[in-house]
Amino acid sequence: MSTNHTQTITDLPINPAQSYYQLGKALARKQRWKEAIAAYQKALQINPQFLSASQELASIQTQDDRDWASLYDPKDSNGKQFKKDIIFPQNPNNLTRKIQNSETTIESLPAVRDYLQKAETDCDGQDWQGAIDCCRQALNIQPNNAEAYALWGNALYGNRDLETAKQAYLKALEIQPNLAHVCANLGSLYAELEQLEEASACYQKAIAIKPNFPQAYRHWGRIYQRLDRMSEAADCWYRANQLAPQHATPEQHLNLGNLLWQQDKQDAAIQCYQTAIELDPKYVPAYQNLGTALGKQKR
Q1: Cβ(160)–Cβ(76) under 8 Å?
Q2: Which CATH code is given to the segment(s) 1-64?
Q3: DSSP 3-state assignment of 46?
Q4: If you ran DSSP here, which 8-state letter would residue 107 be given?
Q5: Which residue from 97, 168, 213, 280 puts its CA 20 to 30 A from 149's CA?
């Protein structure tokens, strides 16, 4: 099937696993990660044994390392803008495996799985109340499902019920402590509550669980920035950009290079300038700063 980048998922036929797969590949080439993930997910819903779709979905996770992040910019009651990441587990089959490993009857497995998948879809569409209701239904069937609590926390966070969201994340981690995405989400929540040391500890734990987690590094850097610890902030941002350079603009790489140069971290600064050039070979300021840096380094 020839792909059309203006096509949406709803434009496709009813059961075309291969078509969704091809659409996902086209969207991934355009770095439209969220839409590509949705297309691969749909292909796997139609054909759960579709190995190529599973591999491409895993590849997006590895390359993009977003943990199925859904970024959004709601406003609080005062209209103040904030941004946070709602992060989903890496593999759609994880939900089924977690369900099967708990005290739930086989007959109830499809219902729990369906509720959690619907909750993910509702979170993606910012239907927070719908997601909350689905998570409650799943937890009524399976009270100790860590991912249900994690998704419930995401939905509550989006719905601005921060205290209950915190308790949901903590319960998820009590059941399953090594959920890196939940640690990171809890860090974002603590950051919004101005509990910066707690937020820092959460990002540190997320990275200890999953060392190649650029989002956690990026947000950890913001915490250090708010704590006026710019050396640590720059180190975190540098690590994030090394793991996922495509998620920063050439200008951001340049600015980080300038900050690192001011901190006498010359090699890292030069790497930032080089990355900016790789992303935009016509970006003149990066060439200028790279030339200046290399000249000074030789002295």
Answers
A1: yes
A2: 1.25.40.10
A3: helix
A4: G
A5: 213
Give per-residue pLDDT as tens, 34-78.
777 777 777 777 776 666 776 666 655 444 433 323 222 223 333
For residue 84, the SS3 value is: strand
Would you say domain 66-246 falls under CATH 3.90.180.10? Answer: no
Instruction: Retrieve residue 193's tokens.
Output: 């509550």
Q: Give the H or E element holding residue 86.
A: strand 84-86
Chain center to CA of 142: 26
Would you say 250 and 283 are in contact if contact means Cβ atoms under 8 Å apart?
yes
Name the residue among 192, 217, 197 with its Cα closest to residue 65.
Answer: 217
Domain ranges of the chain: 1-64, 66-246, 248-299
Residue 281 has pLDDT above 70, yes or no: yes
Quick check: do 66-246 and 248-299 share a fold? yes
CB 216 within 8 A of CB 203: yes
Is pLDDT above 60 for 88?
A: no
Q: What is the pLDDT of residues 181-230, one digit of tens each?
A: 999 999 999 999 999 999 999 999 999 999 999 999 999 999 999 999 99
**Residues 109, 113, 116, 120, Cα dihedral to 10°:** 170
Euclidean distance between CA atoms 74 and 128, whole angstroms: 12
C-alpha to C-alpha distance for 42 and 23, rounded to whole angstroms: 11
User: What gap in Å lies between CA 154 and CA 146, rounded to an integer?
Assistant: 13
Fold observed for domain 248-299: 1.25.40
Reading the block at residue 117, the tokens are 């998948």
Distance CA 231, CA 161 (A): 34
